[in-house]
Design brief:
Largest sheet: 3 strands, antiparallel
Number of strands: 3
Distance between the termini: 40 Å
Oligomer: single chain
Length: 107
């Protein structure tokens, strides 16, 4: 049985969105903000987690990633509007954890 997988959207430093999938959401946010993530995000730091969905398998997450990447920006913004409050809070918690970890590495 596979681990939990996530489809996620980050907002890049230039205001664009990047969509990806991962099995370790918090670790992936660290990688992105350390410039070790996707080529697209490396040139657009920092990134901020703004949305995610949870799936039972990586195949489901990858399928959803593809579907989300096909959405227009306005449709992605609609996803954010209807996001459950617990997901919004978890995005904030993850980014605070990543921020603290990154701060520790530079001191």
């Amino acid at each position: 049985m596979e681990d939990t997988a996530y489809t996620y959207i980050v907002e890049c430093g230039d205001g664009t969105f990047y969509t990806g999938w991962t099995n370790q959401l918090e670790e992936r946010m660290r990688c992105h903000n350390q410039g070790k993530g996707a080529k697209y995000t490396r040139a657009r730091l920092p990134v901020r987690l703004v949305y995610y969905e949870v799936f039972a398998t990586r195949q489901e997450a990858m399928k959803r990633e593809y579907a989300v990447k096909q959405l227009k920006r306005k449709d992605k913004l609609k996803l954010f509007e209807h996001m459950p409050e617990e997901v919004r809070r978890e995005c904030s918690r993850i980014m605070e954890s990543v921020r603290l970890d990154t701060k520790d590495e530079t001191t």
